[in-house]
Amino acid sequence: MPPLHQAQRAMRALRRAALQRGVIAILDLGSSKIACLVLRFDASPGAVGEESDVGPMAGQAQFRVIGASVTRSRGIRLGEVDSMQETERAIRTAVQAAQKAANVRVDHVIACFSGGRPESHALFGEADVEGPVVTGADIGRVLAACDMPDLGPSREVLHAHPVHFALDHRTGVSDPRGQAGQRLSTDVHLLTVDAAAIETILLCLKRCDLECAGLASAAYVSGIAALVEDEQELGAACIDMGGGSTGLSIFIRKHMIYADSVRLGGDHVTADISMGLQVPHATAERLKTLHGGVVATGMDDRELIPIGGDSGDWERDRRMVSRTDLIGIMRPRVEEILEEVRARLDFAGFDQLPSQSIVLTGGGSQIPGLDGLASRILGRRVRMGRPLRVQGLPQAATGGAFSAAVGLTLLAANPKDEWWDFEAPPERYPARSLRRAVRWFRDNW
């Protein structure tokens, strides 16, 4: 078993202990911002008609957001830790502000990140059912029977979810436990990331005196938050345009079947504006946020935008730029991002899904006119997404930039990774497990 699997099992134990105590923190480690939400869980479901800042925990217990904070991300580039000290300082700032707002101390966090160069793998396994009905041991055997691909020495498994089970002639079974049958098979989606990226994040959280109770891919949790249930069931893609990278996840039958990442985002658009207009990065970000767009109209030539500045050069500080010129700088980079996303969708076979809706979310998706441009480039209908199915969020955390953080709250409330964490009996491990152990001893001793 890879070391990350052992660490994740320890994380699950920490998460269960934190949920029993009733308080846990959510940490979104983005390239442009770090968001922290403090959740309080109730041990039992609230009474019917109870007041409304309590959100449903996917049909189980209930939780509410009691503290929230956002700080500028320092030390994270392209979704990965670039400077340990700066990242540590930013995490401490966000967590301390959220603790102060919640008036409670938090020791356990569940984090998501967008880096690590995610890769998807499809696995298949089958095994005989030993008893009259399917049990957890049968599921453990069929999962152990999946043929593991060669992930490489520097890759670790972040998510491993059965997409569906087949029991004899019945396919598309979501949960075979307790059902009668003789032959059980499953298709599993495996998401791997760079081991160094995960190890660096865990070390950074430890330096912040925080216990990591879970890790997740930002593309995965953004899809959980932004896609409605029908889209997750029939097939849809979620494009999370962040600051340093653009995450892509495809869902069908309420399971993620593909995830990828494009190492381009909103910060690259800002950098283009900064270089094109010869202005500081902060000024370029302000121009993009207040006046940016990707579709020019006839009126934009006459809309002059003051660039401003405090360089001391009067002629330079009073420069004006038309909105058409600003759009001309932004549009090529946005088109490049969408072209990369379209290539990933074509590679994943997205056109084979029954429904081919696409949802744009993330902070970078707020550019005016982006949905129309994305619809033309991707060739499918596109809608703008925002976090759904969680009540009681602060007003500042209801936009698309917080889809990953809100999706992580839903995942913390209804974890899917431990549903299928069954141990197979040692004598039932396939022969290749022995071969893998022999190879490990030969390489390491």
Class computed from helices, strands and strand pairing: alpha+beta
Q: Which percent range describes the beta-strand content? A: 25-35%
CATH topology of the domain at 229-387: Nucleotidyltransferase, domain 5
- Note poorly predicted spans: 44-60, 427-445
- Percentage of residues assigned to helices: 25-40%
CATH architecture of the domain at 229-387: 2-Layer Sandwich
Shape: globular
In angstroms, what separates the terminal alpha carbons? 18 Å
Mean pLDDT: 84
Family: Belongs to the FtsA/MreB family.
Domain SHS2: 24-226
Pfam family, one: SHS2_FTSA
Membrane topology: Peripheral membrane protein
Helix-strand blueprint:
Elements lengths: L2 H19 L1 E7 L3 E9 L13 E2 L5 E11 L3 E2 L2 E2 L2 H19 L5 E6 L5 E10 L7 H9 L10 E13 L2 E4 L9 E12 H13 L3 E7 H9 L2 H6 L1 E6 L4 E7 L2 E8 L3 H12 L3 H11 L12 E3 L7 H4 L2 E3 H26 L8 E5 L8 H9 L3 E3 L18 H11 L17 H14 L1
Parallel strand pairs: 1-7, 7-12, 13-18, 18-19
Antiparallel strand pairs: 1-2, 2-4, 3-4, 5-6, 8-11, 9-10, 9-11, 13-14, 14-15, 16-17
